[in-house]
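Why this split exists: single-chain examples teach little about how molecules sit against one another. For that reason, every record in the complexes split bundles all components of an assembly together and asks for one structure covering all of them. Below is a record exactly as it appears in the raw files.
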Amino acid sequence: MDLILLGFSTLTAPLVLLTLVIGVVAGMIVGSIPGINDNIAFAVFIPFSFSMPPEQALALMVGVYCAAATGGAIPAIMIKVPGTASSLLTALDGNAMARKGAAGKALSIALTSSVVGGILSSIVLLLFAPSLAQVALRFGYVENFALAILGLSSVVGLLRGAVIKGAIAAVIGLLVANVGFSPVTGFPRYTFDNVNLIEGIPFVPLLVGLFGVAAMLELMVDIVKERHAGTKPSGLPEIGSMRLPGKLIRRLLPIWGGSAAIGNLIGMLPGAGMLMAIFLAYDQAARRFRRRFEGKPGEAEWGEGVPEGIAAPEAANNAVTASSMVPLLSLGIPGNSTSALFIGALAIHGMVPGPLLFTQHGHIAWMIIVAFLAANLIMWPIAYGVIKTVSQTIFAIPKQAMVGVIALLCLMGAYSDGANVFNMWVAVVAGIVAYSMRLAGIPLGPAILGLVLGPQLEASLANSLSISQGNWLVFFDPVSHPISAGMMLVSLALWIVPMLMSRRERASAK
Amino acid sequence: MRKTASFMLFTLMAGALAASAGAEDFPSRDIDLIVPFDPGGAVDTTSRIIAETANKMLTGTEISVVNKSGGGGVVGQTFASKAAADGYTVLAMTSSVVTNPQMKGAGYSVDDFTPVALYSLDPQVIVVPSGSPIQTAEDFMAAAKEKTLNIVVAGVGTSHHMSGLAIERVTDVKFNYVPTKGFGAQVQAVAGGHVDGALWPLGEATAQAENGSVRILTIASESRHSRLPDVPTFQEAGIDIPIWATFRGWSVPKGTPEDVVAKLSGIMRATYEDPGYVKRMKAAGYDPVFRDAAGFKAVVDSYSKLTSVIIEEANLGK
């Protein structure tokens, strides 16, 4: 407790607090520019951090890290281009709601969900960091494979009726994930002797293309159609009122709790990644929505502007940011590539993350944890301000001009990931593919899930079998791998239960 | 046609002029230090520490770190191999430059680069989980003879994987390699006891050993390390490999004027002699060293000789 207070007093030094605020503002802006993410922001910032005291440097990084995940929702909702990968699912329901004239409400849901998810996760981090870390250590290759299967099973929640098309999309994603050197044999697959494909198709430009370039094409088609019909071109959605009715808040409370819990658990596991948490939370929210609200008067269809569809991924992604600090601070294991940069920042100041950090530099370790709580608290007013001023102005730009702005942002964002021209082509091709998929009615969500989970699925399966000498039953072993066995059963239930229910419904209809 | 030819001649002449001008008052503009990996990794961190220190000494110009990542380093390395040989494009050169052409079909060869200076040598170590019954290097070799141990390496064909293959060549043990991408996931696998051990670079292993999650058994260097006086070398542990170390240094495209190479090497030497730099590198977990152009070339050549045999024998080549 004393140490927590020490962390708190370290954070409340005026300069430290100021850098945290600067970090939040910067993160919000960085997050809301498609293609530019917290990784790139850190790379720019690391040289400055050499000359800063560690407290200030780390406060700044925490601010950027937390706010970037939130800022990503702004363009996702306004123009259906996720600012960061973490808001890719927010783009679906969020943009649909904005197009129905409730952009302010959508932004407000996203913002509030982020803050609530972040705060819940920070509190868990504050109370249980060291003991949770021990749980994370129990995840080996077998558990990671089971987790990937569980993630893949969440595809059920992403599908609405079109099961075949959904399955096709997931398979496309898994196939594309095969490009690059095989992690098991080191053999090149579908690289066509192009060095840019050795590590697979670069992910950030791919996402920028799938969403950004596709959104640009959509806008262009809109404009052309309006010209043909001779109607006055409609503008982008207006932000309008951001008030959330109390009834809606009460309705979203269980979503926030559930999504934050999922984000918390997944965030602790190195290699699982933020996107898996978002997909699982989204799936969980979809199931709840179908049980309680679907088909009732005044309710939109899932994917067409449902509040749960915005709340779940946003609460989950901010929960992940805080909980990815659990293995980092207490074990020295980075949970994702961004939190790995914290190791760099700590190392530059001669500090080694791990159990020793809490004893040797207790004030820094606890300050980081308290900073996550503080960053989420101050994020609400700052984000509100940014939306009401900067975003309001930007999105008042006419649609035609916006097409150019999006194109520029997308190509720049794709290029800046590795400073490589090849990435711009990736974005353009991915955009055309995504737009064609949309025309064919093939959903994008399952494809991205396949893309994200493919490499993990392959590596963890190969390594599990290699260690167990080819024993496939290892995943269901209740004695040595109880976590895996449990997750496998849950995955199985996720597939079977909806089938049984629809059969019973059909039987009772007869 | 004639226009193009004369234009080309003009460019060539201008280039030659620029090159000769560059040799005298080098550096007269900013130097790009190409890091062919993502920000935050070992090469990036050390490069930024060097740039920061060197920039305090340079006047009017500075070294700026440029991350050109992708393709396991090949993208940035290829870019640097094709850059103008004027000393204004420097590659943060790692061991992967040696092996990438043979294994990943990269378009350059190691001879397309002129080594400038070496700043870090990271010897290979064998680690086991701290809860493992294996206490010493002898225990480890005995256990490996009894059964095939599961050993984490960063990936198939990495320097760490090849160090394992090298051990197999000189002893009668066989390992089962568990390629695991990302250092975080590797620590997870070792610290969580999901594998028997790992082949890691000393730099990254040190922090994990200090916080008590792993135990370092033996180190692949000619003499014991000052910070780990109780850890035997590979040769003391009965593994006949005198040294196996990944290296980090600077190199420039082939054909860069010799005096420019010498000037760059001088910048690195001056950086190495700065006490603040040494302190900062050590704090970040790297032992700074300095070898000039010739010394670095010797290190590169010996590594190249060691690995090319293994790549061929293990059929890792493309």
